[in-house]
User: Fold these one by one.
Assistant:
Number 1:
Amino acid sequence: MGAVAGRTGGLTVRVADMGDPGVAPMLDGLAAEYTARYGHQAAERELTGTPDAAFSAPGGGVVLVEDGGRAVAGGAFLRKDARTAEFKRIWTDAARRRQGLGRRAMAALEGAAARRGYLRAHLTTGPEQPEAVAMYERLGYTLSSEEGTDPEGRRIYFAFAKDLAAPGERCADPGAGGHSGVRAGGASYD
């Protein structure tokens, strides 16, 4: 069982390992989402392309936002380099979007990565996820102009980066702020 990272608004935020049974709703939700947007083969490639062990301490972790003991949002991180955590498998339950859960998951990922000594976060998302692109931009992530384009300059995926705050600078309630959620393309991860 993972350590409890905090409790806000009736939600529990905790750090876990990929093998934790509480991660299953996140992985199932991601598989369904990726399959619907990119097809079965691409979904399988994305979800099996990184070994689960890469998301384990000391270099990685999984963050779950839970309501009543069930994951409603979350994500994972792993070591990209000594200074940079790569965020992957970022997810919000489709039935719970536009409630600030994506922001909570991202804040929890940033906090967990900073506590492990990372100074920067890197993440990528696909072209069929405009709501994710909008959320990352709103959260202060910078789109890379050097990564994610083909030789002709067409965008094939979106790569983002952000400097992480030191653990003492973290917001006490990552869901606070009164934002109604990021909306783009008729859906939202937030």
Number 2:
Amino acid sequence: MKDTHAIGGLRHAGQGRSPPHGRGQTHPKDQAGPSSVIVVDEPSRPLLVCFSHLRWSFVWQRPQHLLSRAARHFDVLFIEEPVFEPVEISLLRVEAVAPGITVAVPVLAQSQSYAADQVQARLIREFLHERSHPKRVFWYYTPAALGISGDFDRNLTVYDNMDELSAFRGASPDLVAQEAELLTQADLVFTGGRSLYEAKRGAHPSIHCFPSSVDAAHFARAREAGPDPDDQAAIPHPRIGFFGVIDERLDRELLAATASLRPDWHFVMIGPVVKIEPESLPHRENIHWLGPKPYGALPDYLRHWDLGLMPFALNEATRFISPTKTPEFLAAGLRVISTPIVDVLRDYGEAGLVAIAETPASVALSIEALHAEPPEAWRERVDRHLAHNSWDRTWDAMHALLREGLRQDEAPLLLVHTPTPA
């Protein structure tokens, strides 16, 4: 479909990190043919368009934490990966999920699977053209989205590199090249942890480390008294729990062996199972798979656990992770044992806030030691550490960088309309 209009003052993606066009300018591609220039009253809020490989309704994690705060300042459009359904005409399914946040899902006709990128690009372009905003920010979680948006106009491009997606199971072999291209287009790059920052810091002139943060007040509810959820109430103590996505990053052999060493301990596992077969999960009388739970209900489960466990496998998929659940366990007042994930070890293990163990025997010894220790002094140190760690602080720092990047001229928004030939 022909691009019938563009927003003046926006930078065309192909220009990389060069300065935006000046006040009221149009792109060369907009100057050909008959056109009319319409001055539009400038809306009060810019638009932030997020391209995500994660569903908004999936596990509540970094994208939701940050973009729910971004909605204080931006109209947020969260574009998910497509779904294929038996529809005659492809469409964009749009839903307002919170004040200032709209989720858009491309729903593609199965007959158009061969042209998925082109169809998505058309649907999104049409949707964006129906809306006018003074500024437009593109915020990427997946470099793969360049295939549907790389030539769209925007004022600022942000790459929030929360994970090394190319190392995950089932990742497209094109991701490495797509990320290299995204790094040439991005104005700002954020990383989700220290190890990822160190690996990427030479790849971009404006890269910033923003490790996983925490909503401490939310998880501190686990320190208060409350009823045990029905599906957990019958599980004996001591309970050692995990919550999060259950995929190839979970060391299933370590969990099974530790559970076999101590059949009197009960391991409570919360979260969706993705990218691995459920049949591959270890099944023991003392391992309890409770499935996914809403973010709001997590403190209700955690308050009835004795310890936390992060049994991550040590593989390419976990090499650069900075687990959000680490500070969440701590805010809940739960001492936790983790395998030696680099960012966990450096940010929490060396400070004595998280126990580090790698083998079933060492995990069992750590559980025994922590279970026998009174937690009061440890919680005081945790609270001092978390006092400087919050999603609000992280967003404020990111927002300051966005404001600086958007601090250009304040011209009225110009729409340049080129009629489609009959």
